[in-house]
Amino acid sequence: MTLRRLAHDLALPVSILMVLTLSAGEAQDDISDAALQHAQELLRSTPLIDGHNDLPWLIREETGGDVAAFRLENENDFDTDIPRMREGMVGAQFWSVWIPGETAPGDRKDLQLQQIDTARQIIDTHPDTFELALTADDIERVFEEGKIASLLGMEGGYALNNSLDAIREFYGLGVRYMTLTHNVSTDWADAALGEPLHDGLTDFGRALVHEMNRTGMMLDIAHVSPATMHQTLDVTAAPVIWSHAASRALVDHPRNVPDDVLSRLPENGGVVMVSFIPSFLSTAVWEMEEGLWATDAAIETVRDYRDIWTAYDAEHGAVRASINDVADHIEHVRDVAGIDHVGIGSDFWGMPDMPIGLEDVSGFPRLFAVLIQRGWSDEDLRKLAGENLLRAMRRTEAVAKELQRRSAPSPYSGEESRSVKSLSRQEIEALKSGQGMGFAKLAELNHYPGPRHVLELADELDLSQIQRAETEALFEEMRMNAVLVGEKLLAAEMGLDHDFERGAVNSESLESALLEIGRLGAQLRYVHLAAHLQQKRLLTAEQIAKYDELRGYQDAAQGHPGHPIDDSTHH
Fold this sequence. Notes:
Layout: H1 24-27, H2 33-45, E1 48-53, H3 55-63, H4 67-70, H5 82-87, E2 90-96, H6 105-124, E3 130-132, H7 136-144, E4 148-155, H8 165-172, E5 175-179, H9 203-215, E6 218-220, H10 226-235, E7 240-245, H11 259-262, H12 265-268, E8 271-274, H13 278-281, H14 283-293, H15 302-316, H16 323-337, E9 342-344, H17 364-373, H18 378-406, H19 425-432, H20 451-461, H21 465-494, H22 507-535, H23 541-558
Parallel strand pairs: 1-2, 2-4, 3-4, 4-5, 5-6, 6-7, 7-8, 8-9
Helix pairs in contact: 2-17, 3-6, 9-18, 9-21, 16-17, 20-21, 21-22, 22-23
C-alpha cells in the first residue's frame, strides 16, 4: 500500500486515461505586471499564512532527517526552499509533521517525535529566516520582524494512541493544529478515504474534540468524512480549519468539502484553506492520476511518484490543473461560506505536477494577482491571505482560556470501550481470570447514558457553545465517578479486590453491576449534570428556571426524587 500519496488517491474505476496536454498559456490568464506588483505590495503588509507543507517528511526520505544535508538555503529540485519562500512572500508556514496511518501502534509516538524534531530543526537551524510561533500574536510579531513564522501541524491523530493526555503533551512541543485523521480511520473518527467504522465520531472522539478545545489546539478536519465534519461542528466550541482541502461542488473528490458543510462555517467561524493538490482541483487530473498511480502498487516515496509522473508526462503529456482552478475553488468557498472563511493551504510535498503557475512556493503572489484581476478588493485579499486564520486561531486561544478556567483536564484516556454484549467468550474468560481489560474500560455500555443525553440537555436549555463544551467536560467527570462506583459495587458483591486479582467474575454478576451503573446514570442524566451546571453558575436565570421545569417532569417520569444526588455517593 502506498504511503504519502494516499492523501490524493481513491481507487475508482477509470474508463478513459486522460492524456490531454495544457500549455501554460492555455491554463492561465495573462497576469499583468501591475496586478503582480499590487499583490506583492499587499503581501508585504499582511502575512500570507500557508496551512500545509510536507517538507519534514520529504527531508526524512531524502536525507534521513538531516536538515543541514538538505540545504534549504539553496534552490533544490523539489518545490520548497528558502529562496523561493522569500520570493513567494510566505509570512507564516504550518509545517506538517505527518506520520502514516499504517504505522504500527508501538512505533507511532517515536515517529511523531522524530517528525516534530525535524520541523523544529528546520526552524532552529535557520534563525535568520524562521522563528517558532505558538500564538496568533507570535505570527504577527515574527512577520513584522521580517522572518517567516513557523508552526507545527500534526496530520492525523495516530500518535495519540487513544490518549487525551497526549494532546497536551504534543501541544507542549509546539503543535498548534491536529488533523483528526489522515487516510486511515482512527478508533474514534472516520477518514474521508478510510474504512467507515463509526458513522463519524465516537464518544471518545467527542471527548477528544473537547480536550483539543480546552488545550487550545486547532481542530483540522481536512481528511475526515462528511459525517465526521458535521459531528465535529456539532460539538466544538472553537472554530475548525481545513488545512488543505477544496470544494466538492466543483470536483467530487472525497477529500473536498461539501457545500452543506461550508454553509455551517459562518456560525462556527472556521476556515477552509484551499489546497493546490491537482486531483482536488480538476476532475480530469483526478481521473488521469488515479489510473497512473494504479499502474504500480509498489510506489512508496515521493521520488517514486516523481519518476512515474515525469515519465508519463514525457511520453503522453499529463493533464494539468492551473492557477485558475485554484482561484475557482477559492471563489466557490467564498461564495458559499463567506469571505471570512477561506484561506490558503497549498500542500506542497515535492511533486512536479502542481498547478501551472503554482509549481512551487514562489507562486503565491501570482495567485493573488489572478484574484486582483478578477476584481477582489484589498480587504478581501487580506482576509484570504491570513486574517481569517488569525481570527480563528485567536478565537481558539480565547475558548481554551475560558475552558481551562472552568474545568480540569479530561481524565479519559485509553481505547474505546464496548458493550459487554459484544465481548467474545475469550474476553469474558479473561475478565473472569483477572487478565482482561479492567472494568473502567468497559464503562461506555449500552445501559449507560452517553453524550447524546448531554446534547439533549443542551438543546432543551439552549446552551451556548461554551456552555455545551463545559457540559461535556462535567459529564465526562461524572461518568468516571460512576465507573468508580460501579467497580466498588462489583468488588463488594463478588468479594474481589479492585483490580479483579482474585475471585471469579461471571457474566451474570457483571451484568448486574452494569445495570446498577445504568441506574446511577439515569440520575446523572437529568439531575446531577444540570445541578452541577447550576452550582457552577454556568446557567442563566432563564436556563435555571427551564431546568427546574424539565427536572420536575423527568424526575416524576422516572420515579427519582426531585433533588440532586449527594456528591459523596460518587467518589
